[in-house]
Amino acid sequence: MNNLLNRRHFLSLSSGASLMLLGLNGHSQTTSLQKHVRCSFALGTKITFTVFHEDEKLANQAIDEALLQIDKVENVMSLYRPDSQLSQLNREGLLRKPHPLFVDTLKRAQEISALSDGAFDITVQPLWNLFRQHSIKGTIPNQDEVAKVKKRVGWQFIDIQDDLICMNKAGGQISLNGIAQGLAADVAQQALKARGIEHALIDAGELSSLGKPQNREAWKIGIQHSRKDEYLGKINLKNRCLSTSGDYQVKFSEDFRLNHLFDPRTGYSPTELSSVSVLAPSAMQADALSTALFVLGQEKAMKLMKNLPQVDAFFVNKKGHIQHTEGFGLA
User: Fold this and answer.
1) What family is reported (predicted)?
2) How far apart are CA 17 and CA 108, in angstroms?
């Protein structure tokens, strides 16, 4: 699954890189703060830190600590590491003495599943496996195959206790790709703040912002067009997090109708939207909600967001029509 799971794409507004600051060079525009950039790789995606701080040594120590915290998340929740607790749970159907972080993440995933009436569901991994296997062969699964696999999908099948996690459905499997990258961005931000960093942007597939870049009011971010190599709009991101889910990120059919975003209630991809970008207080929340709102469709998504403080969204439907909540803050 490697690079296929790098699902979020945020365009530079000034260069061809995946994420850059508008109008800033490699050094800050005053002598008080310096710009420090570091790239790494975890949870199936490239991770980029952009930090502004006057002390280069402290900035690098903070990034080191942030990467260490991300590695802890990956050790527990990565699908790519056979010794992770997630991989063990998927193989054996149960996990004794789970890491507290794993337990907390699963509980929060279930909360969002309940909130979204099952639109967000971490047990869709069997559907991913089915469509991915067919994709490799250049085929599409038939309705009987989908119906059979869909019986193993359902967030209620997970029994979560502090000392034991069970999959109460034979063949059930979990994917945390819709929430773990957000968690990684959150723990990284916490590590930076603990080291005294006040201004940083973390791109871990989701964007987590802290403070602002030097001589700017906010981090300026471009949102990827779902069909063209250009951006649909730009936003000023400040002290919130941004995540996008789109049908273009992993597709199983050339018309984008079949893609990695599954409606667990049907076993197929939703047909209304092309992409959803979500602003939220945490990257984990933005990450999970971008998937949930995509599956729900715009009308139900708007109703759900009325009860979610500081959450805003930007919708693009299959015809390219754009709508967004008032607080999304296009620049």
Assistant:
1) Belongs to the ApbE family.
2) 33
Please give, one letter per residue, the 3-state secondary structure of 115-174.
HCCCCCCCCCHHHHHHHHHHHHHCCCCCHHHHHHHHCCCCHHHEEECCCEEEECCCCCCC
Q: Give domain status of residue 138, yes or no.
A: yes
Closest CA to 182 of 122, 268, 222: 122
Residue 58: Cβ-neighbour burial (10 angstroms; 0-12, 13-18, 19+): middle
Give the list of residues 6+ apart from residue 103 with CB closer than 8 angstroms, or none: 160, 161, 162, 165
**pLDDT tens digits, 123-155:** 999 999 999 999 999 999 999 999 999 999 999
Tell me the residue type at 181.
Answer: Q
* pTM reported for the whole predicted model: 0.89
DSSP result, 30-54: SSS-EEEEEEEEETTEEEEEEEEES
* R_g of the chain computed on alpha carbons: 19
Q: Is residue 34 part of a domain?
A: no
**Helix extents (H) in 260-315:** 283-296, 298-305
Range of the domain at 141: 85-167
189: tokens are: 């931000």
